[in-house]
Amino acid sequence: MRSPDDLRGAVEEYLGGLELSPELGRLDEVVRYALDGGGKRLRPVLCLATAEAAGADPDRALHAAAALELVHSFSLVHDDLPALDDDDERRGRPTVHVRFGEAQAILGGDALLNEAFALALRDPRPEVARELALATSGMIGGQYLDVNGGSRNRRELNRLKTGRLFEASVACGLWVAEMPAEMQAPWRAFGAGYGFLFQLVDDLVDGDGLATELGAEGLGRLAEQTHAETKAHLDAVDADTAVLGVLLDELAARAQKS
Amino acid sequence: MRSPDDLRGAVEEYLGGLELSPELGRLDEVVRYALDGGGKRLRPVLCLATAEAAGADPDRALHAAAALELVHSFSLVHDDLPALDDDDERRGRPTVHVRFGEAQAILGGDALLNEAFALALRDPRPEVARELALATSGMIGGQYLDVNGGSRNRRELNRLKTGRLFEASVACGLWVAEMPAEMQAPWRAFGAGYGFLFQLVDDLVDGDGLATELGAEGLGRLAEQTHAETKAHLDAVDADTAVLGVLLDELAARAQKS
Known about the structure:
The structure is a homodimer.
Chain A: H1 4-16, H2 27-35, H3 42-53, H4 62-79, E1 89-90, E2 93-94, H5 96-100, H6 102-120, H7 126-147, H8 154-176, H9 185-206, H10 210-235, H11 242-257
Antiparallel strand pairs in A: 1-2
Helix pairs in contact in A: 1-3, 2-6, 3-4, 3-8, 3-11, 4-6, 4-7, 4-8, 7-8, 8-9, 9-10, 9-11, 10-11
């Protein structure tokens, strides 16, 4: 089993050598700037670790893993735009529209989404790209709810905007390992739980979202409970899921540190 | 062989009954507004007619055909945005961002692109979705050139921004008919020629683009020549391409009327 750091290294190497469509021309620079933002690559690492736990060589999941990161990056670039969240900074750097202009950020986000499909379609199993399209619908629907004051139901919003892509990260690893749909349920429940915990931790660290609704203590308890439930889904799987367990614990540890 | 009007009717019926991802929620309305703009459905009709000429039941190409129309629609919604072409009207109606707001137009365009892939992936042949991704890269690259004053080479810009999706419309019909890649060249040349003629006619009707560069008369001659060359590509194909010939002649006739 390859360690989380080893898998992260494989993702960085793949993304660093990524060949984009030449017809994108100089938009290439915008796409790479968006991808090089120093993210933790949680989604692609989750995909590779799942593929390995489900019996595949994780390198076979690299196209799918990178595609997931590109979809994530697309969503950040568009969500940061002035008409949406209007954010000037992300991880200590100017956001794409601040650095390159709004037109470039719109087109760069479009290119990221499209290249994500081009990558996912390098995988011989069309289920990978189908999974990506389903998750992306959910993400866009979630962002729409967010922009239009749909925060009355913050859990549904989080499930769509954040959770769907984490679940898809696990599912894409399963498709690469050629696991039949009818055996995927506990794995997918783990992915959904991981995504929910991610959002809880994020709210806890930032002191917004559900932290406002439940208070830091209430949110901390919910995170602990979600951690335990998600671990139980993983234990229900008949496979060596040690690395996935480490990834889940790393995430939960961020909550305790905050 | 089904007539162009019959094929157009099949496209309208399919689009009218299109089931979008339920997770898009009320963004559904934005997507449908963009799709209901009264376009001529040239790309999907070209796809269906090609599929039939290449030996397939054109109904089998409906997913692919609709996917092409959604990609076209995505590009219009984003290109009309204030940061890009800043257009307030399209075909006599307010553009999407004028009608629904800028955030909705950005997210609605994203949804159209993503749903296009979801549709293309309903086809069992992943080549359809791959073709779509390739063409869309070209379109986005072309729009980038356009926004960034790349009009020094207007033919290259047109080839990317307009031509690539017409060529893909033909190619998707061929993939549905399961035509091997090595037999596709003359068909693809027809598709590229059709796309080039489309842009020439558009410039002639609007009096811009190449009309400014070549004058109406020069542009008219280029359109005639392109019409003849494109027809020759079609004649090189060993199949009943009568309906494709009619579609090409209908397009050329628009130039003569202008």
